[in-house]
Design brief:
Chain B: It is an enzyme of class 2 (transferase). The complex is a heterodimer. Chain A is of the alpha/beta class. Chain A is built from 16 helices and 29 strands. Chain B has a six-stranded mixed sheet with strand order 2-3-1-4-5-6, sandwiched between helices. Chain B is rod-shaped and about 220 Å long.
Chain lengths: 513, 545
């Protein structure tokens, strides 16, 4: 429903702007500046998630016409198969070829934690912008980042601000960084300061995701409406999944929702030095791949092909890792991973958050699973921990798991050795009806051996009930990543057939959109 | 039920042989298994772990070499480090081959390839630096040249100032670190160079060419496809790539080390599992071995006990019995059981019986009393019959002396049978020495009874003989504590005579003698009593006053 409204408003905007543009042919001929904005490009060359070679061609074309500021909204460094190996270096390399004016630091840039992010910043020949974050260690910027960028765009000075969503720290388990209490006020102050120093235009780029800003959205819109910001850009592939009536208000407050979409802002300065903005969207797929960048991409593919194409074993049953299949119900692959964790640690029970599983693919048996497949699904590098937890903690964890089911957030747990019966129609925090471990009802004070991700043990995704639990070290724990364990398990079994087994049952059985 | 010893002994020996063989086999088997395990450890597990260790040590050098390569600031340095990398890699690859770890080989190959890549990148980076350095030098040179050439020429001064400002800007570009900034710089320089051309237009034709040449060259130096701006852009990208590649290799090596650690752990666990299994196996075997050994031990003990009790003891018993038999009275030997030894006892009993019967037969046939050596009852009967007939034929007197040892039973009881036998022998000897005439006969009549036949002897002479016998026996002084009438052995003698004329029956003669003896006993023993048969009267004649 929201999608339709959004589309219709979009359409209205385009019509309005086209008319405006047609009515001002003189303005067209005058100075024109371009902002090219993309975001969330985790794949090197993909039809659905964006292609760097094609984007390069797009940029070449526009750069031959006018001054261009190419801004990346972040969310690029992970998750992807290659990133699981090089932590995003290849993306920085490709971006270097495209010469961005700036890249906004998004929450996914923290996938491998703060220090790796800093390393990437030093590999980049462009600034990493993060306006609302501070490093606790230095009380200043996170190493390698800046809080704003002023770019020369032809004869204009363009100020670029970029923000992280408020749930970054929790979702990505970031410990060293603090976010500004009031991002809206912060942006306002920075924008005003920039203008005071002589900057002509100020823009803000959001990093994913739309749903994360909803409770401040109206305020941000007000910044655009009131002219504090000239425009604000964001991208969220899953924007249309949000079941919320909040709409884009101001035409300069732009969100793109398709993986291959590029936002183009045409800026016209008229005789009176007033700016007119015309926003449009284009698909990268309309362009031919740039040969040099394509060669770069193919070089990366070649180098890692032998390793990634290694066959692991056969898959005999079907499953999907699209968000609805994995973040709101029991998933066969989720079961398999949880089982692998439990077996490795020799635990009673195991679980992991479904947000760990990323590829959003369909699998139709029988197929041969390769290392590439598994790394695409499990690109985050994380270790197993074995914890001794009480039944009380388990119950709290389960309630947390079910607390954001409607938004299909990644904290939804896939389990092993447990059975959970819940009602998603009940209030948050009261959704668990029955909780069993190995067939026995979970007792409040009984201690269980739980295997899970380091991320969850460190309190990520709201699982702070485990922060006090001391991990139980076991042999072989630190040498295997979770992805390694899953690969091992498939290789040992040679053929796997994971199934839904009734570990997680929703009594309400509400249909998710 | 029959329990043949031969079968039992055979069975016992077989049983023991079997148990012994079992124990020996178990020992051998266990020793084989342990040898196999040790051999396996020695040939597989230990070398594997050694390999893993060597591998780990080799791999730990790589991160350091990685950093060194990235930071190499000359081609020579780069070459040295790269050669070291190749050496270490070759060593590691050899170890991977030796230990046949295919999955590690693939991963290490990636590391090697990436290092080669990095090497090429670093080479490129260093080349670029050199080229840019050259450009920089060229730029300065050009600038200096232009300055010197145009110095003094007022026409060129404006153009020169502008030219200098372009060069200054260009120099700035070498310090820019942002690609966007470089791009902007390119645009700016391009605009400035256009201004240059415009300036040149307005110059005097004489200097026009000169200025144009310099400007064109500057343009080329800066903005050509391989110009300074392009090179600097490339340099930034390569720097980024070198950093990225180095970081990537570091990450790969770190993963690889974890992988080898894991492999080593798996090896260790497998080995431990192996050993534990073997130990459990060995313990189990040891228990069984102990059990079988205990059984064998008990078996031996039982066999020994059996041999002792059922065979040796009974054989000894049999031997004793046989010896006892040979020495003394014949008894039936009782040997319990139903086996060869019992058979042996039975056989012996049979032969003993037969011997006894034979002896008895022989004895029956003999006329000699075995004990004393004088005549026996049978001899006496024959002799009496003969003598009576002779006495009747010759009508000569005949006398019989019946001699009985006084309180002989008491003597036997008190002094024992052997003493009794010896006593009888002595008495017999006395009789032999006393009754010496050829026609007289001495015999042992019964247990303690002796009898003499005195041919052609009347009652008076018989009495004298009897007296002589009494005295002789007294002279023997055989101690007899249990005699009621004396302290030594005495005898009682009963005489019966037959005078001349009249028939004489054997029975009646003996009967008369017997009666006389009886009388002698009744009158107090140790005396002689005579009874005349023909008269039917008894004449009492006290032996000693």
């Amino acid at each position: 429903m929201f999608g339709k409204v959004f589309e219709s408003v979009r359409g209205l905007q385009v019509v309005t702007l086209t008319i405006a543009l047609l009515a001002a042919p003189i303005a067209f001929g005058k100075s024109e500046y371009l902002i090219v904005y993309v975001s969330e490009m985790t794949e090197m060359d993909s039809e659905t998630k964006g292609s760097y070679p094609k984007l390069a061609s797009l940029l070449s074309q526009y750069r031959s016409e006018s001054p261009v500021a190419f801004v990346s909204g972040g969310g690029n460094l992970a998750p992807s198969t290659l990133s699981s190996l090089d932590m995003g270096s290849h993306i920085i390399d490709l971006l270097n070829s495209l010469e961005p004016a700036a890249m906004v630091v998004g929450k996914r840039e923290f996938s491998f934690y703060e220090d790796q992010l800093s390393l990437r910043a030093y590999e980049a020949a462009f600034p990493f912008v993060s306006s609302n974050s501070t490093d606790k260690l230095t009380q200043g910027r996170l190493d390698g980042t800046v809080d704003q960028v002023v770019v020369e765009l032809g004869d204009l000075q363009l100020g670029i601000l970029g923000i992280l969503p408020p749930n970054t720290l929790e979702e990505y388990n970031v410990k060293r960084v603090v976010l500004a209490e009031d991002p809206v006020e912060l942006i306002r102050q920075k924008a005003e300061a920039l203008r005071a120093s002589g900057v002509d235009l100020v823009m803000m780029a959001y990093s994913c995701c739309y749903r994360d800003y909803l409770n401040r959205y109206a305020e941000f819109d007000e910044l655009v409406t009131s002219g504090v910001l000239d425009f604000a850009l964001g991208k969220d592939e899953h924007l249309l999944l949000t079941d919320n009536p909040e709409m884009v208000k101001h035409p300069n407050h732009i969100w793109i929702a398709q993986g291959d979409e590029v936002a183009i802002i045409r800026i016209h300065k008229d005789e009176n030095n007033h700016f007119l903005f015309a926003a449009s969207k284009e698909s990268m797929n309309n362009y031919e791949a740039d040969a040099d960048v394509l060669e770069q991409v193919e070089d990366y593919n070649r180098r890692l092909d032998t390793l990634l194409s290694e066959p692991l074993g056969r898959l005999e049953t079907d499953f999907s890792t699209h968000l609805p299949s994995i973040r709101s119900r029991e998933n066969p692959f989720g079961n398999f991973i949880a089982d692998a964790l439990r077996n490795h640690a020799g635990a009673d029970i195991a679980f992991l958050n479904s947000g760990f599983i990323r590829a959003e693919r369909d699998y139709v048996a029988p197929i041969e699973l390769t290392r590439r497949d598994i790394l695409a699904e499990l690109p985050f590098r994380d270790h197993v921990v074995l914890l001794e937890v009480t039944g009380g903690q388990l119950l709290a964890a389960m309630e947390n798991s079910l607390s954001q089911i409607e938004d299909m957030k990644g904290r939804y747990l896939q389990v092993s050795g447990m059975q959970v019966i819940y009602d998603s129609s009940l209030a948050v925090g009261e959704r668990v009806i029955a909780l069993k471990a190995n067939g026995q009802t979970v007792q409040e004070n009984q201690v269980y051996r739980l295997a899970t991700r380091q991320f969850i043990a460190n309190g990520g995704d709201g699982f702070d009930m485990f922060l006090g639990s001391k991990p139980v070290p076991y042999e072989g724990q630190t040498t295997r990543l979770v992805s390694d364990l899953v690969i091992d398990a498939i290789q040992v079994a040679r053929s796997i057939a994971p199934k839904v087994e009734g570990r997680l049952q929703d009594v309400a059985q509400v249909e998710r959109p | 039920m029959r329990q043949p010893i031969s079968i039992i002994i055979l069975g016992a020996l077989s049983g023991f042989l079997f148990l012994f063989s079992l124990l020996a086999w178990m020992s051998y088997d266990r020793s084989e298994k342990t040898t196999a395990l040790l051999s396996d450890i020695g040939q597989t597990a230990l070398p594997n772990m050694h390999n893993a260790m060597i591998l780990n040590m080799g791999i730990l050098e790589i991160p350091y070499l990685n950093e060194q390569l990235a930071q190499a600031n000359s081609q020579a340095m780069r070459r040295i480090v790269n050669q070291e990398i190749l050496n270490v890699s070759a060593r590691i690859e050899q170890h991977l081959l030796d230990s046949k770890q295919a999955n590690l080989e693939v991963k290490f190959q990636l590391i090697v390839d990436e290092l080669a890549n990095l090497n090429a990148l670093v080479q490129h980076k260093l080349n670029l630096a050199v080229i840019i350095q050259q450009y920089e030098t060229e730029l300065y040179r050009y600038h200096a040249e232009a300055l010197s050439l145009a110095n003094g020429s007022s026409d060129l001064s404006i153009w020169l100032m502008h030219f200098s400002s372009v060069v200054t800007q260009a120099n700035r570009s070498l310090g820019l670190t942002g690609l966007q900034d470089l791009r902007n710089m390119r645009v700016q320089l391009s605009a400035m160079l256009n201004e240059q051309y415009q300036l040149i237009e307005g110059l005097d034709p004489s200097v026009h060419k000169l200025a144009e040449t310099y400007t064109l060259t500057l343009n080329h130096l800066l903005l050509a496809d391989n110009g300074v701006i392009a090179l600097r852009t490339e340099q930034l990208r390569v720097a980024g790539r070198v950093a990225g590649r180095t970081n990537f290799i570091r990450s790969l090596v770190s993963d690889f080390i974890k992988e080898t650690d894991y492999e080593m752990l798996v090896l260790q666990q497998s080995l431990r599992g192996h050993i534990t299994l073997n130990t459990q196996d060995a313990e189990k075997d040891a228990r069984v071995f102990l059990l079988v050994y205990s059984v064998a031990f008990c078996f031996i003990i039982v066999s020994i006990v059996f041999l002792k009790v059922r065979v040796l003891n009974r054989l000894a018993h049999l031997k004793n019995r046989v010896l006892a038999q040979v020495g003394g009275q014949p008894h039936v030997i009782q040997i319990d059981g139903n086996d060869e030894i019992a058979d042996l006892a039975g056989a012996f009993n049979y032969y003993a019986l037969k011997a006894k019967e034979h002896n008895e037969k022989v004895e029956k046939l003999s006329l000699t009393d075995a004990l004393t050596g004088i005549g026996n009852r049978r001899a006496f009967d024959e002799a009496l019959k003969h003598d009576i007939e002779l006495s009747v034929a010759l009508d000569s007197p005949l006398c019989i002396l019946m001699i009985d040892v006084d309180y002989f039973k008491n003597y036997n009881d008190f002094y024992g049978h052997q003493a009794g036998d010896e006593c009888l022998r002595k008495i017999a000897k006395v009789l032999q020495y006393t009754v010496t005439r050829k026609q007289d006969f001495v015999a042992r009549y019964g247990g303690e009874e002796f009898i003499c036949i005195l041919q052609d002897t009347d009652s008076k002479a018989a009495q004298q003989v009897a007296q002589r016998i009494l005295q002789a026996i007294e002279a023997l002084h055989i101690e007899h504590k249990t005699s009621k009438i004396a302290k030594h052995i005495t005898v009682s003698i009963g005489i019966s005579c037959r005078g001349s004329g009249g028939a004489l029956k054997v029975d009646s003669v003996i009967k008369e003698a017997d009666q006389a003896l009886y009388q002698a006993k009744a009158e107090g023993r140790n005396r002689v009593v005579l009874r005349e048969t023909s008269m039917g009267l008894a004449l009492v004649n006290p032996a000693n006053p």
